[in-house]
Every structure is written in structure tokens, then in C-alpha cells.
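Re: weekly structure request thread

Next one in the queue (399 aa):
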Amino acid sequence: MSMSTPRILRRFALGCAAVVCAASAWAQNAPAAAAPLDRALGVVTKLDATARTLSVKTDAGAEIGVTLDPKARFQRVAPGETDLKNAAAIQLSDISVGDRVIARGKPGDNQTVAANLVVVMSQGDIVKKQAADRADWDKRGIAGLVTAVSGDSITINARTLAGARNVVLIVAPTTIVRRYAPDSIKFDDAKPAKLPEIQVGDQVRARGNKNDDGSKIAAEEIVAGTFKTVAGVVQSVDALTGEVRITDIEAKKPLVVKVTADSTLHKLQPNAAQLIALRVHPEYAALSAGGGRGAGKAGPAEGKGAPADGKTDPAAGGRGGRGGAGADLQQMIDRSPAIAVADLKNGDAIVVTSTLGANAGRVTAITLVAGVEPILTKPGTREMSLGSWSLEVGGGGEQ
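Done, posted below.
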């Protein structure tokens, strides 16, 4: 059965929204098979204006050839737009490699589409939308661990340098709710979900408008998932395969950490690690006040947790020194220097967040953070433990 133009356009717009901000339910449910031969949806990889042909790479990775009817119409819509009434007429010369398109027409020869309509979202518009979404997540976003779920709200424990606080996410019928895929570490692979699927202990990232004191957020979008946070000591590093073998300091067992192109690796600077350790382990302050140096080899020594003048340490906060008392711990990690697998050394302590995989002895890293010895070391000892500290997935905005 042929699909109507408005419905196709809606799928196209939602698919582009998934590329832009990982918010499309359709994109998450789309089958892996190639698109039907009367349409092609994806990114333009080749364009021959003289021959009036396009090559389109679908989200599933298939390449589809498109021949353009002499009377074919070309229209441009903004990312997220679902109504052709708001489209602008363009020419074939306005389409570029990298643009996202949906070409609709009739099946052609040799597995091609003979298109009489091409709707375009330009690469430039998508990049602008991506930047706007990232800014919006930073401004109105939050991340934390779920502590309670009710019929129309979720309570999360959001960690900040000022301490942990409870924030209530108000869920409306229009709120987009998704869950991370079990075997994927990509934010845009999250699947549509319902509120009851979110469980206590899940990590949640949400964005929406906050009330005056930040204790409640009218959530427009929520992404949740069940993740595993592990702390360990590096035993060996294989930079070619991206595998790091560690000893889990809690389970006392070996574990293989797989690092992929989608993994994020950071190394905390000493001042940043010490500042976080002072918040995670308030005992350090007592030890420092008492003149003790029993924080252990890796602990904050000689009261170097924060500048004496009370100002934010740029080394702790990263760009612009935004690591003050109200900043999010995840923001501090995100602003720490990025590293590669080859930068890890035997004996380094790391913290890894991963999805729950089928193999208990192997995980794929979402986030790997080195330079965490001060945070893991128990005050007054040389013993390391993860304790209740965990890494949030995706970060969140300031509160």
C-alpha cells in the first residue's frame, strides 16, 4: 500500500530529528531493511545535476540510486517540520552532498527510485539544529539516579558539587520518554518507552523548564537506562584493539573494558579530582582541619582541595572556570582533557560506565575516567572503593 505524502514527510522529519537530537520515535522503530523502492530516505552521498541522479545512503547503511523525473519538484523544510505547507520551493542546484532527503516516486530500474518529489533538510540547517539542541540540553537539562517513580512524576537524585539534591521530573502526556538500548552506548539509539519502564536505580537524563528553586522540572524529554559503574586498576592496555584489562576493585575479579569510537575518555586534573573527592568524602575536610595527612597516597594532601580565596579553580572547572559549588559533577568530567586508550598505563585507577551486557566479564565503555585515585581512596587509608559514587550518562545542565 502506498504511503501518503504527509505521513512520509512526518517520518522524514522525525528521522532527521533523530539525527539532530536523538528524539525520534520513528527512527528508533524503523526496520533495518532497505527502504521500499518507491522512496529513498537518507543522506545524499553523490549528486550529478547533469545526469539528474542522486545516491542516498539510508540510516540502515544501504545505498539507493535516485533518478529524477524531468518534472520533479524540490522542496526544503526545516529540521523537525512535518507539514509541506511550510516547505520552500528550491532547485536541484540547491541540493548538496550531506543533505538529508526523502525522494519519492516510482520503482526504477536496477534497484533505483524514479523520483518526482524530493524533500530536503540541508546539512547546514541540521548542524544549526544540533548546536541549538546541545545548548538547550546544557541550559535546561539535568541528569541523575532515579529514587522514585509515580504515575506522573520521577524523582531523581542529581549530584552537584554543592551536594546531592532531589529533583522531581513532572511527566505530561506530551513528554517524550525513551530508554537506552541494551547493547548500544549511543544516545540516539534509545527506544521509545513508557513511564512504568523506568525503575528506581536507573540513570535519567531529562530536559524541560525548571521552577524557581530548581526542585521541579516540567519534563519535555526523558531518556533512561540501566547502567553499570565499575572502578578498577589497569592491568594491561591494547591500543590496537581498544581493550583495557582491569581488576575490579569491588569484585576483585578481572574485567575487560572495550573502548569504541563512541566511548568518551577523560582524565581528571589533580585539582579537579581533589575537589570532587572533598565533596564525595567530607571526611577529608575533618582530616585536613585536624592537621592529619592520613588521606592516603592518592587523597587530597595539605588542604589543596580548593583555592584559599574561595574562588573557583579553573583547573577544576574547565572552560571559564565553571566548576564552582553549583556546577554538576558530570560537567567537570566532561570539561577535563580527553585522552586515548594509549594514554592509560598499568596501575592507573579508572572508573567506567557501561551498558549491562550479556558477558559479565566484558563491558563496553560509555564513559571512562582516569585520574580518579583521590576520589576512590578511602580517607585515612590506602584502600580504594567505588562506594556510592557513579557517573551519570550524558551530563546535564547547571542548576
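Helices lie at 5-21, 25-29, 123-140, 270-280, 283-289, 314-317, 329-334, 373-376. Confidence is low (pLDDT under 50) at residues 1-8, 13-36, 291-327, 394-399.
Next request, please.
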